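Late entry, evening session. Most of the bench is empty. Finally got around to the prediction I had been postponing all week. Sequence below, unchanged from the version circulated by S.P.
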Amino acid sequence: MLTMKMEKMWMQTLCLDVLNINLTFIIYLKTGYWSFFTLNFKVSLTQARIEMSELDEDSDGFLQPHEMESYMGGLISNLLQLWDMPGAFVQMYCRIAAHKFFFFCDPHERSYACIKKVLLSNCLQELMELHQESEEEVTDNEQAENWFSLTSAQRICDMFLAIDKDMNGTLSKPELRDYALQVGIYQQLEL
């Protein structure tokens, strides 16, 4: 039995899918590709809002880190550039992506991010760029520029693992100091 909230969200999603099919075709025929992308982004934004609201366990309009990781996990199958992600890397990718959102949308480190703020963030726009084309059609430079691309996420993970000498999942002050010395940015700062 569906709760009233879930039933309402299901109807909104169904209406959005029908709206997406009909309006996308009409606007694409009349105005061309750019409006096609704009409409799809608006629909994607509305769908993101609905999906995030469904994952908001306490319905307070804020996402906790595990809720954002769940959102990212559900989104992977919809993003063309992430279809080839190795299964073993999915959980790490979700964690990395969720931390990026929380870095920008939760600057006071309260461990919850406002859904409206997430939807308006540049992070979500950058993530939605992965809808546009498959990884083969994107140059290596474009992949490196998009923080959410598979290439970029794997590079970040590899860098973190190289710095984390004791492999405990966190970076200590000595590890950060060693890394700063290695890349030449250490200037007698007290860590």
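Two things to note before I forget:
Residues 6-39 have pLDDT under 50 and may be disordered.
Residues 1-55 form one domain.
Will write this up properly tomorrow.
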